[in-house]
From TrEMBL:
This is Helix-turn-helix transcriptional regulator. InterPro entries: Cro/C1-type_HTH, Lambda_DNA-bd_dom_sf, MLTR_LBD. SMART domains: HTH_XRE. Residues 51-98 form the HTH cro/C1-type domain. The lineage of its organism: Bacteria, Bacillati, Actinomycetota, Actinomycetes, Pseudonocardiales. It comes from Amycolatopsis ultiminotia. It comes from the Bacteria.
Amino acid sequence: MELMGDQASAGAGGADERDIGLGSFLRNRRARLQPSDLGLSGQGGFRRVPGLRREELASAVGISVAYYIRMEQGSARNVSREIVDSLARVLRLNPTEHAHLSTLAGAAPSAPQRPCRGYQQERLQSLRTLVESMEGAAYVTGPRGDLLTWNRTAVALFGDWQQVPEGRRNWGWFLFCSPGYQSLFTDWEAKACEYVGYLRSYAGRQPEDRHVAALVAALGSHNAVFREMWARQEVEDPSHGRKILYHDEVGELDLRHESMLLPTDPECYLVSFHAAPGSVSAHKLRTLRSPVPPPSGTAH
């Protein structure tokens, strides 16, 4: 499987940290609602832009228009929990979006930054042993979707990440800049949206991570689909579900995936792609499993 496309610079053409904030998220969600959603059908006359007007949203939330404008401009600090909850209700946010809004508005503490290198020095060897003991394809990701360590089955299923330069061992680069992944995931768009939603959610939790803006800019300059997905302002957290993959050697694989946050390591996830015991896909995974020694995984 091809793991790398052309390397784009982190310069011009991509998004930057200015569209990670509260104002852009509110404007995006405000544009998705119509006056009729608030019982305002037929009011207000001609509209130059889609969605709710600022004064309509402010009135529904129960705050002044001036205060709401300050929120969109990024000059309102430490917005109260009551206002955030009211905004989430009026904007019809799901729980993940509600939590994201809380973080952006300063109504929830950001997750503590923990140097990933120190984490790896203490625990990476133990995690290598854990993932290699798992029958399915298993790996550990750190902040921004960086790959930290993985097992033989992951190599067989996704390609040899050890051969990828450290700076590109990241799910964003794999999904948007490696053509092989677009054919591997039969619903590639859903997988790509999951990653973009996770990255935006992470950016909201960790606004001090200077590497996020560079990654967003680089991926945006390289791939127009990433730019379009990033502009949607969707947020997600890694979870679980079903994925259908198509591998050149064994054909279709019907797999379940689980993403488990490591409780003592903020922003680090243990991820597994596995098949139902005794299934055809389980047999294919065993057939596919690489006989070579497991990769070491490298600190970032």
